[in-house]
Amino acid sequence: MGTRRARRCFAAVLALLGLLLAGCATGRLDATKPIGEEARDIDGLMRLSGWMAVGVGIFVAAAVAVIIVKFRAKPTDDPDDLPPQIHGNRKAELTWTLIPTAMLVFLTIYTLPTVFALASEGDGRTIKVEGQQWWWQFSYDLDEDGHYDIVTANDLVIQTGEEVNLEIHSNDVIHSFWIPQLNGKKDAVPGRIHEWRISSDEPGIFYGECVEFCGLSHANMQMRTIVLTPDDFDRWVQEQLAGKEAAQAAPAEESPEAAGAALFETHCISCHVVDGTYESAAGGNANLLAGIAPNLTNLMSRTAFAGALYETYQTGPDGDYLRNPDGSLKLNLAELREWVRNAPDMKPARADNQQGMLDFSEVLTDQDLDNLMAYLQTLGSEPVLPATNAGAG
Ligand code: HEC
Ligand SMILES: [Cu+2]
């Protein structure tokens, strides 16, 4: 092999390696900047074992290079004159067995405390996490009476400094929950409850994805963790409860909201629950393979919809939220409306197979859609955004 070809080959390998490493930090999913204790512990292990591997790699590559150069056949060598033939060398074999063994034993011992620490229960609240095709649901039992007071989707809201215990369930197939900056991955397995802890030192919006292939829209099954200061978190809880109260009041008669509520009752409550108003639908549509559809009680308080594939509110090029002249957030009305009109067109799903939302494009008129949008906008107040990092970037 010519040296030019060798060099090209080497360059290609380097480029591939670069691509591979870039995969650790693509846009919003960044496994290299841990923000919570659990993520930091994992990052520490990765760094240590990574550097040990780099050391071993360099040593082996250098040894190979030296051996190739030093012991290669020289033009003056007699081709029949072989170097001494050796069968076994106890000292060498012991060395290259014992050193790697010692390194692996060291790594195991070094890793174990973290493994146990990650498996231990945190001192904060417990939140139920349910994966289903293809979105995540989060339920909060505030007074620990076995009844969930807040049920939301897409946005997992927690407060800074709290070791939150997640109880991870799946309602259909295996999914996996991963917010790279806050902890490692944990599978959601049907029929099992997996416990997992997350925490964050800083307020912010941290992005995640389902990381176990779960069917058609696996790639569109995202979620985010909104981390608020304790004061903001309390405000969020109060607003969620207030949203529940408000959802029970009937809209003013003959308003677009009332017309929307009536349409909602006709077309939507077979799957969706709005707490209080549609008690009859509690439990959702038993036929829906993926379990119930997102609880819409506080729809407006979430930053994203449809498995966090779409923003509920408009963002600018740098990820900052856009605002109306009165300071309120700008609703992403166009995409929300299009979603209600023809959801399967915006996110691959198989509604005919009871996965995802139906196509209403042949059912609802433009007027119906306007009324439904008016009604949906009454569901909850706008999201409580983290003090810093108020953007989506
Ligand atoms: C067959 C069951 C079904 C019906 C009927 C249905 N939906 Fe849905 N809807 C779903 C499912 C499932 C999702 C979640 C889809 C996803 O993210 O993949 C969803 C998502 C939504 C979302 C986004 C919520 C979020 O937090 O992600 C909105 C808004 C919504 N539906 C409104 C409506 C309206 C309005 C109607 C009536 C016109 C309706 N839906 C009828 C099943 C249904
Ligand atoms: Cu999934």
Q: Count of helical segments?
A: 7
Would you identify the CATH H-level superfamily of the domain at 246-376?
Answer: Cupredoxins -  blue copper proteins
Ligands (ions, cofactors included) = heme C, copper (II) ion
Q: Write the H/E string, N to C.
A: HEEHHEEEEEEEEEEHHEEHH
CATH architecture group name of the domain at 246-376: Sandwich
From the helix content, strand content and strand pairing, which structural class follows? Answer: alpha+beta
Radius of gyration: 28 Å
Can you give a write-up of this model?
The structure is a single chain. The longest helix has 34 residues, at 37-70. The chain has helices at 3-22, 37-70, 90-119, 230-247, 256-267, 333-346, 366-376, and strands spanning 25-26, 29-30, 126-132, 135-140, 150-153, 155-159, 164-170, 175-178, 186-188, 194-198, 204-210, 222-228, 304-305, 310-311. Helix 2 (37-70) packs antiparallel against helix 3 and helix 5 (256-267) crosses helix 7 (366-376). A 5-stranded mixed sheet has the order 5-4-3-7-10. It is of the alpha+beta class. It has a domain at 246-376: Immunoglobulin-like. Strand 8 and strand 9 form a beta hairpin. The chain is elongated, with a radius of gyration of 28 Å. It is built from 7 helices and 14 strands. Residues 134-135, 153-154, 264, 267-268, 270-272, 285, 288, 293-294, 296, 299, 302, 305-307, 340, 347, 349, 351, 356-358, 360, 372, 376 line the site of heme C. The site of heme C has 30 residues, from helix 5 and helix 7.
